[in-house]
Amino acid sequence: MPSPYRALFDAPGTRAFSAAGFLGRMPLSMMGIGVVTMVSQLTGRYGLAGALSATIALAAAVAGPQVSRLVDQHGQRRVLRPATLISLAAGAVLLFAAHYGWPDWVLFVACAGIGCVPSVGAMIRARWAALYRGTPQLHTAYSLESVVDEVCFIFGPIISIGLSTAWFPEAGPLLAGCFLAVGVFWLTAQRATEPTPHPRERHGGSSALRAPGLQVLVATFVATGAIFGSVDVVTVAFADERGHKGAASVVLALYAAGSCAAGAVFGLLRFKGAPERRWLLGICAMAVSMIPLLLVGNLPFLAVALFVAGMAVAPTMITTMSLIEEHVPRAQLTEGMTWVSTGLAVGVALGSSGAGWVIDAAGAKAGYGVPAVSGAAAVAVGFLGYRRLSRPAPRRGGTVEQHSEREERHVA
Predict the structure, then answer these.
(1) Where is the composition biased (Basic and acidic residues) (predicted)?
(2) Three-state DSSP class for 205?
(3) Nearest to 325, CA basis, from 145, 125, 147, 143
């Protein structure tokens, strides 16, 4: 590991909460694709599979910011454990309902309950922010977290799809639930690095989403999430059409590997100038990288195209986390990070559901039109909201000098 990354772990407790966060985040990459694989294995209905995955994402979009808002007010331990238990109970219902062929509405209700799963990534980033706020190490920490996210997306789909196709259909989602339980309960047992809660009276009852800059980030990441959700579903169907459904996990892992490699390098760099410009460039790169998918004819070409496309993901996500710090009050940082995840979740829901219906109607190859259109939408929203995003944000929770420095840079 390069020295800037190794230096992060000099602070006591960092290794333990990072390891717990890794386990707790594995379900992020395993559950949705695991449900798609499980339901398509049991019923052959990709439309239903995509809709169920979309339901999980939409439920997380509704519940996630509320859970994180409670975390900011009451602390991680008091909130995450009951929220996780609700999600695990709903996951158990889903597995039984799928296995025994219960009515579709039961599947949808269970998926809605799974959406109570907490945003573990936001919890870990909040711990890093509490340790390294205002230092160069925070950029490196956010880069590390993006790499960890992508490592989860490399191995998560391989494990989930592999178990569900080689062992039994419910195996992938079942293991995802086990990872969630172990990760969250281990994380919340670590009290020394838990960020200090901020009771409601300290910052009022308003939502972090009132910040104009955060609104732009969330809206753009709805379209970005549609890229991710549709790519997952279409890739499984594309591999299935060619008689190699299990290979979909490897192809999706290469998508994450490209992002992982780019994120690791990005964390070693130090940038000058406005981060908003780097963010917008990243959004454009993600959109352009979807165009070659429209031309895919075989799995090797698809794997190469997705690896290249993934290289734009992590740098964009890292820059996004830095922008959240500038546009959200410190007492609402966890909620602000979760709102971006919510935008992604809504997009994943729209993308996976839309891709499922396109696949059923016109085949897998036509489904790659969904991420291409989603990329174009992300660019449009990014350009339309750029002025609000680049405007100095009030109520950042930083120092007077930080406010003045940023205002002077934008005036210049």
Answers:
(1) 402-412
(2) coil
(3) 125
Q: Are 325 and 333 in contact (CB under 8 A)?
A: yes
| Cα-Cα end-to-end distance for the chain | 38
Dihedral sign from CA coordinates of 77, 79, 80, 81: positive
Residue with tokens 């994180």: 68
Inter-residue contact 55 to 104 (CB < 8 Å) = no
Concatenated DSSP letters for 245-310? Answer: TTHHHHHHHHHHHHHHHHHHHHTT----S-HHHHHHHHHHHHHHTTGGGGG--SHHHHHHHHHHHH
3-state secondary structure of 117: coil
What is the rounded CA–CA span in Å between residue 46 and residue 344? 21
CA angle 48, 112, 343 (to 5 degrees): 90
Q: What is the pTM of this model?
A: 0.75
Dump pLDDT digits (tens) for 118-155.
888 889 988 998 888 878 888 888 888 888 887 887 78
- Asked if 315 and 284 count as a contact pair (C-beta separation under 8 A), the reply is no
Rounded CA-CA distance 48/108 in Å is 10
CA 300, CA 308: separation in Å to the nearest integer?
13
Report the alpha-carbon distance of residue 237 to residue 249 in Å, rounded. Answer: 11
Residue (of 123, 128, 139, 124) closest to 318 by Cα position: 139
- Amino acid residing at 151: V
Could you give the CA distance from residue 129 to residue 264 in angstroms, rounded to a whole number? 19
* Per-residue pLDDT at 174: 93
- Mean pLDDT on 82-111: 91
With a CB cutoff of 8 Å and minimum separation 6, the contacts of 237 are 46, 359, 364, 367
- Write the CA distances from 208 to 114, 203, 339, 396, integer angstroms: 24, 10, 8, 11
**141's tokens:** 């920490």
Q: Are 161 and 189 in contact (CB under 8 A)?
A: no
The contacts of residue 167 (CB under 8 Å, 6+ apart) are: none
CA distances, 125 to each of 41, 133, 306 (Å): 36, 11, 27
Q: Does domain 14-196+208-411 have CATH number 1.20.1250.20?
A: yes
